[in-house]
Amino acid sequence: MTERNGLKAEVAGAGFAGLVAATTLAQQGWDVTLHERGEELRPLGAGIVLWNNSLEVLKAIGAYDSLLPHTMVPPFYETRIHNETMSLEDFDGLPWRTMTRKALHEALEEAARKAGVEILVNSEVVAADPSGTVTLASGEVRRADLVVGADGVTSNVRDSIGFEQERSRSKDGVTRLIVPRCKEELGGGDEWDNVIDFWNFEPRVLRVLYVPCNDDELYIALMAPIEDKEGSAVPINYEVWAESHPYLAPVLREAAKIENGRYDGYQTNVLKNWSNGKVVLVGDSAHAMCPALAQGAGTAMQNAYTMAMAVSKSHEDLPATLQAWETEEREITDRCQAKSAWYAETRNMSKGNQFTPE
With a threshold of 0.90, does the pTM exceed it? Predict the structure, then answer.
């Protein structure tokens, strides 16, 4: 049993960043309450690619081993234009894994509960104050030594305090779905174990990111310009997508059956500061980014973990500790945000080899 340190944290939002922050704080001795506005804990989105930064976080909080059987390591990250291979990247041994968001979320929830985090559902944080209070939708006001806003791109914690931010939107968006692998129907070759980024520019811009998550489940992200009403329609328009990507017909046929999908535009939020007094923002509430580098969740989990460790090691002057933590982490996150936004705007990911040493 972890020895308690007498410190109290209130965490808004039970996504990846909120769960990592809550778990790490609890493991370091904090009394943690995690607020989820929904009726249950569940992930948004479909599948995900994790790189070494987030995998190291999962190991540090004890969530890695239970997640591992539900993941896979594809042989290559392949990029194609009109079904012609532009690049095959294997990252020279750098650890990476693919999985469903459901599997990741369940592993993080298990770790949070094991750490002793109090999880409240139907509990929405509608406002926060730099002095260390949160106000719930019920009207209840709770006081803490630390308030963590991990409540997403439309963060109530952030907006109630008035953090200064710049917001930009891309010309493209994406529909994310989990479908059966259909590997044999696709041809059955080893190439269908790769992550494959299919780009088509004629007769219209339509992209399919094909991500096998395990033996049975496939994550596909179907990108179309926001102005393309047929390409961005939900449920997906099978005829439109199959005409553009006929080699993916079995997968697209399964995708067209899903009626509860959602098309989301790409968005980048850059904040002047990530903290104010005893309030700190992590994840999309602080640095929402386009998914071009698959680092939205990675930076969210990394920053949530390093923040929780920083305030646990030095909490006598919490505002100063949070400012020092941001100074240490910010350069990496800013670079990921900027690079992801550039790739989304230029569509240069289609040329392949975007995962450079930088």
Answer: yes
